[in-house]
Amino acid sequence: MTGKGTISETHPLSIRLIGARGGTSYSNKFLETADLVFFIGSNTDSAGTDAWKLPKQSGGLKEIYLNIDGVDAGNKYRTDVVLLCDAKATVGMMVEKIRAEGIKSNAENGCEAAPAMKALDESLREFVKSTQLPIHPVRFMKELEALLPAKSHIVVEPSVGSIFSAAYIKQREQGRLFLSNYSNGALGYALPAAIGAAVAHPDHTIIALGGDGSFHFNCGELETYARLGVNVKMIVCNNNVFGWIKGETAHVYRSDFFATDFGVVDYAGVARAFGVKAYKLDDPAKITETLKEAIEYQGPVLIELRVPDESQLVPPVPRWIPNAVEKDIPYCY
Predict the structure, then answer these.
(1) pLDDT tens digits, residue range 225-262?
(2) Which among 101, 139, 82 is positioned nearest to 308, based on CA atoms?
(3) Nearest alpha carbon to residue 197 among 182, 179, 222, 220
(4) DSSP run (H or E) holding 97
(5) In which region does residue 201 sit, left (phi positive, over 0), alpha (psi from -120 to 50) or beta (all else)?
(6) pTM of the prediction?
(7) Which of 264, 290, 293, 327 lies 20 to 30 angstroms, CA to CA, from 256?
C-alpha cells in the first residue's frame, strides 16, 4: 500500500497492490508463482507480504533486495542478493547495462499482467452498479475515482475507506497521490494528516478517508479545518463499529465480539457544530451528486458515508477470505 503510485496503475506491467492490505487474488497470484522477486525500496513488512507468506519461500525462488538503508536489508526475508544503494541510480545503471548487453527477457508474466488487471476490473462490475444498503464501498470508490481532480491527494487510515480505496481506486498518473500510515496502523491519522497535506499543497483537493472509530480519537481537529479553511473533504465511513478489530475477531479468531460496537453518532452533525459543511450519504444514487458538490466547494467538507462493517462485507484481506468463503459472507478479493 505504501508503494502505491510508484508507477501508474494503468501501465501494462502494473499489478497494482500486493499483500495483505488491498492485495487481490489477481495481484497476489504473481507473487505466489514468481521464481524471481526484486524488492526495490520496500521494507517487506507484514502488510506488504501478507505476514511474510508472499512471495512463497519455496520452489527455487530467488530474491534481490535493493535499499539505501542497510538496517532493513534482508532482515525479514531470506535474500539471495542485497544491494545497498540509491534506487534510482542503481536501477538506471542496470537498465543501461541490460540494453548494452542486449539481454532479452523470456518471462511470461509480463504479458500476463494487463489481462489479469482487466479481469480484476471486470470482476467489479456488479459492485460498481450495486444498489445495496448500506452503500457498497467499491461503488463509492469507483465514483470517487471518476471525479478526482487532477491535483489531489488521498489520505487514509485503517478503515473500510483505506482498504477499498487502496485496492480499487486506480491511480492513472505516477506519483505520490496516496498517503497512508498503514505500517503503523494508527487510528485517527487521516484528520491531522489531511491538514498537513492541505497546507503543503494549497492548490490541491485533499480527500481524507477514515472510519467512525478513528473519528472518535481526534474529531476536535475539525475546528482546525474550519479555522484554516483547508480544502479537505473528509469521508467518515460509518458502520458503528471498530471494524478492523471485529473483522479479525470474526474471520481469524472466530470468537464472540466484545467492545467492538458502539452507539449511533451524528457525525455530520458534529462537523456542522464545528462550522464544517457536512452531508449524510446513505443513498448510492446520490454518490456522484454529493461528491461533486463537496469537491466543487472550496473549503472543508465532511461526508458521513454509511457502509457495511467488515463482518458483513469482507474487504481484500487474504487471511479473512477463507472464513468468508466457508460461511458464505460477501467478499471482495
Answers:
(1) 999 999 999 999 999 999 999 999 999 999 998 889 99
(2) 139
(3) 179
(4) helix 87-101
(5) beta
(6) 0.94
(7) 264
